[in-house]
């Protein structure tokens, strides 16, 4: 089994917990508690949860966009939470995030080409001369024409913007990609395009991916291993090779039952057709 | 008391008629019936339901007829429309924040709706408001009734809005993505409630959604919209499991999560925006079955039996179209 | 992607585009402003008279084709003086907006971005300055420093930066939570880069729009202070000063007061037209 590229140990975060000395301790439930997981080199790990389950907090703590109150984030064996600011900043590019809302994920006053080139500039990933070609290559990689570089975000649809966000993440040449509900604000047919793109890029670039979402069926399709979250905690891990039917936790089973799916209805339809025939 | 909703040849255009958002749309919802209007964003599905309540932007150019019972809704004055909104026809929107008054306690807001349509005592209205809150899945409703909207989460506000829409016992309910913002377990409860109201109280339901499975679980008829037109309609089971329009096939295929496929099916490209829509089949550029006939002129709806109709000249070829017709190299497309 | 946005990072002159793409109020406002500025700059070609030289034989002449707005008690052509005065008054407006805008934006950006005690401290200072009436504070500072235009600019800057700081701080607080700013942090960008490249261009347009209404206010404050003898000094032509000098003739020779008074009103109107137009554009942009 390959070594984990990323691990979290007992990760915890409580919002609004900081208080002045004269205030009573507020009874705020933690947004994230005791989150321990590992992401293996080159795998897709699925995280499923509903709103308030702590899945976005988990994503932000792993990317160190939120400082976890407790626990560690180990990237290639190094604890990121202990690093001083400057050292952390140099490591950040290895763990990239694709956010949920493609409409607020791009600077409205920055051209696409500048957005991508800025990443290379800051990290010295391409010389000025190489930048143009690299931008064009990145855009092509996500299925956009090179001419997109000259435009502002407002010229693009939601699906196209999400492709640009993926290109921006790839510009940093990351090792881990966190996709935090990357398709839930897109239309059904566009969702499929973006999911396929992510699957493709993962294979071609050897990325390790954490794919977060609320759609159990979709996550189960994408990810061999799936973690189920509820109330800030990991309640179940579905191991590789298991199917949703093997889920043991009551909550996972309730989720499965509550989702209307066409498969369930298909069975009912066939039954009614047979009855009509008879 | 319940009256049917009927839309005939509705066309809505913007920008002085240059951008047709909805073209020649006709549909019908009888009392006790549930019709699902399915489509992606920009297909015109939300606009159609708003038109029925007279909630169109001032610059919209509307033609056609919308009738509720024997009233022509497009001819009513704003005052007359206001009078039928609530009790005869009500609407649930996707965005709950805009329709709740921030300084009114939610219990009072629901009671007010009840009392403005029926003469009942304060206590009775209050009791029914709490009962409704319970039915939409709000725990300890008696306590929560005294809270203000900002004290609720987005999902809870959505449920309160649903309770308000149902408070006046409307004969016809228009629900525009009513559960999209909700978690699946809550969603299941709301869908069950809507289904009960329809079956037990004869409420008509027009459910607008992009989620085929949600629509399928609630509706006996389905109309699929694409680029401002209805492209397929019929009984829910027929449309979902024996589709005769390639777009419906593609839409269904993109919801399949079978592990035997390495990729999700997807329809290449994206729908044409209003103003860019061709005068022939609007799906032609994305269709795996496209031929020259498809680009010869406007395509009418064709009857394919048992009340199912599809806007396609090749309906006979559609059943042989498999999911694999929509699985492609994701880099070849442009969303 | 609009002209306003592109004007902010100073990428060449985009004025013609602003005129083409803006609303009517913006187009008319900018066109009229252009006329006023050109008239001020090319004043010697607009009018044959000297704004300062005395000509006592022609004192207090009513308006005529020879003297469009009449002459004052020292025989100077009122129209000429109004046109020349625009040089000083527009300068008061422009500098009175630019300096506080720059200072306030920097302070607001820092307060909003870093938060914590920095923000608390700056917030208190802002509250204290706002608690005083604007005009009283400006007059007090100028009175302390001594009359003159430079001191007027110092006073305007010291007082009105807080308004810009408050606007930019609020915008920054909201933008800080935007996902593109999170993405910038995620990409390992430094604070300065995030503040200047990703937050500032998006936070400054509302401050810019406010600056337009502030411009009109500053012109009026400049005129008011000159009226009290604290701004421009005679014999320099300045609208407020002209009104102050001629106030005793308000009834006998009203044209001496109406000329500069009208100029203040017109410039204020033109500026508010531009401000409205810009506000529309900013609103339409962030959808």
From TrEMBL, chain A:
<dbReference type="InterPro" id="IPR027417">
    <property type="entry name" value="P-loop_NTPase"/>
</dbReference>
<keyword id="KW-0067">ATP-binding</keyword>
<keyword id="KW-0813">Transport</keyword>
<feature type="domain" description="ABC transporter">
    <location>
        <begin position="6"/>
        <end position="256"/>
    </location>
</feature>
<dbReference type="Pfam" id="PF00005">
    <property type="entry name" value="ABC_tran"/>
</dbReference>
<keyword id="KW-0547">Nucleotide-binding</keyword>
<dbReference type="GO" id="GO:0055085">
    <property type="term" value="P:transmembrane transport"/>
</dbReference>
<dbReference type="GO" id="GO:0016887">
    <property type="term" value="F:ATP hydrolysis activity"/>
</dbReference>
<dbReference type="InterPro" id="IPR017871">
    <property type="entry name" value="ABC_transporter-like_CS"/>
</dbReference>
<dbReference type="InterPro" id="IPR003439">
    <property type="entry name" value="ABC_transporter-like_ATP-bd"/>
</dbReference>
<dbReference type="GO" id="GO:0005524">
    <property type="term" value="F:ATP binding"/>
</dbReference>
<dbReference type="InterPro" id="IPR050319">
    <property type="entry name" value="ABC_transp_ATP-bind"/>
</dbReference>
<comment type="similarity">
    <text>Belongs to the ABC transporter superfamily.</text>
</comment>
<dbReference type="InterPro" id="IPR003593">
    <property type="entry name" value="AAA+_ATPase"/>
</dbReference>
<protein>
    <submittedName>
        <fullName>Oligopeptide/dipeptide ABC transporter, ATP-binding protein-like type</fullName>
    </submittedName>
</protein>
Automatic annotation (TrEMBL), chain B:
<dbReference type="InterPro" id="IPR003439">
    <property type="entry name" value="ABC_transporter-like_ATP-bd"/>
</dbReference>
<dbReference type="Pfam" id="PF00005">
    <property type="entry name" value="ABC_tran"/>
</dbReference>
<keyword id="KW-1003">Cell membrane</keyword>
<dbReference type="GO" id="GO:0016887">
    <property type="term" value="F:ATP hydrolysis activity"/>
</dbReference>
<dbReference type="InterPro" id="IPR027417">
    <property type="entry name" value="P-loop_NTPase"/>
</dbReference>
<dbReference type="GO" id="GO:0005524">
    <property type="term" value="F:ATP binding"/>
</dbReference>
<keyword id="KW-0067">ATP-binding</keyword>
<keyword id="KW-0813">Transport</keyword>
<dbReference type="GO" id="GO:0005886">
    <property type="term" value="C:plasma membrane"/>
</dbReference>
<keyword id="KW-0547">Nucleotide-binding</keyword>
<dbReference type="InterPro" id="IPR003593">
    <property type="entry name" value="AAA+_ATPase"/>
</dbReference>
<dbReference type="GO" id="GO:0055085">
    <property type="term" value="P:transmembrane transport"/>
</dbReference>
<dbReference type="InterPro" id="IPR017871">
    <property type="entry name" value="ABC_transporter-like_CS"/>
</dbReference>
<dbReference type="InterPro" id="IPR013563">
    <property type="entry name" value="Oligopep_ABC_C"/>
</dbReference>
<feature type="domain" description="ABC transporter">
    <location>
        <begin position="5"/>
        <end position="252"/>
    </location>
</feature>
<dbReference type="Pfam" id="PF08352">
    <property type="entry name" value="oligo_HPY"/>
</dbReference>
<protein>
    <submittedName>
        <fullName>Oligopeptide transport ATP-binding protein OppD</fullName>
    </submittedName>
</protein>
<keyword id="KW-0472">Membrane</keyword>
<dbReference type="GO" id="GO:0015833">
    <property type="term" value="P:peptide transport"/>
</dbReference>
<comment type="similarity">
    <text>Belongs to the ABC transporter superfamily.</text>
</comment>
<dbReference type="InterPro" id="IPR050388">
    <property type="entry name" value="ABC_Ni/Peptide_Import"/>
</dbReference>
